[in-house]
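Our consortium's second objective concerns turning raw sequence data into structural hypotheses that experimental partners can test. To show how far this objective has progressed, the report includes one record in full. It was chosen at random from the queue rather than selected for favorable results. The single chain below, 388 residues long, was entered without modification.
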Amino acid sequence: MAACIVGWGHSKFGRLDHEGLESLIVGVSRQAMADAAIEAAEVDGIWLANLNGGFVAETFCSSLVLQADDGLRWKPATRVENACASGAAAIFSALNAIEAGQCRIALVVGAEKMTAVSAEVATRVLSAASYVAEEASQGLTFPGIFAQMASGYFSRYGDHAATLAKIAAKNHANGVTNPWAHIRKDVGFDFCNTISDKNPLIAAPLRKTDCSLVSDGAAALVIVDASLLSRFKRAVQFRARSHISDFLPMSRRDAVSFAGPQRAWRSAYQQAGCSVNDLSFAEVHDCFTIAELLAYEAMGLAPSGEGRRVVDDGSVFADGRLPVNRSGGLKAKGHPIGATGVSMHVIAAMQLCGEAGAMQLAGPQLAGVFNMGGSAVANYVSILEAVR
């Protein structure tokens, strides 16, 4: 049996003026250890997912986790950064240590404080996660990068602006029942599908409602070696996990094909001995609505160019055959960079254990999680299932 998630913590996502990076880290670390009913002294290793890049002054933040409990003193702590996939990268690093026999109990924390800087600074920090030589240095922001993907998709397969609006509306509706979501408001399809003063074009054809949020927030997991499971009240195992990286320059790849995510999903299915049809739900990286549409095709829900079918027939809605982003996704839940991948795994674990509250789906058995860094450059897929 693979390593298992046995406890978690999660903060509110949003503009948290009363919280700093340290308080976010400390809060969810304490929550996760209490939820798993472990003492801090039992933790063998700590992994902190955090992009930073100029959002806050602290560039050396791994040991801030130790502020949660004096029992964490002397524990090895490492900061992990892989752009917007930092959360999954930290989780996978902890799993590697457990599987290598170097760690039995791991504490993984993802946190980001993004709203203390201006929109201009936030844009600069995020743009630096592109291929700067050809993209950020030429004034291309991430909305611009994903707008290029959307334009390429529309050119190849037809105008899908209404499909993107349906995805946005779906995720906003899902976010209403997520107590941690940045935006808990059902804004409706018509609003998302209409360019207006409140929903302007950000980078054509993407509107404001097609873009994820700049958010503060944190999430944490306790992951343990399977030999320890008898002492925990529930456990969610990693049935499979895959990490695939692609070239950083968009000029070296067909961005519309989402080849990296496709390979990551294919590898995870092969390891898990399952297919997309076996999944009960998925949490996927919808930094922009076009990314969710492309994710449907990468995970095998629909053939290339036909992702709109699973939106139009309701498959990916909360009551559909494979709900996607029941949490509201990055679109409504928010996207505090370092926290995002950890949050996805927390929410998937809660769903599988029947502890997702108002978000709870009926009897889920198998979850897919897709966390992405950059423009489909760093691609992480986990297949999760409850084992107790």
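The partners drew two points from this record. The first helix runs from residue 21 to 36. The chain is about 30% helix and 15% strand. Both points have been shared with the crystallography group to help prioritize constructs.
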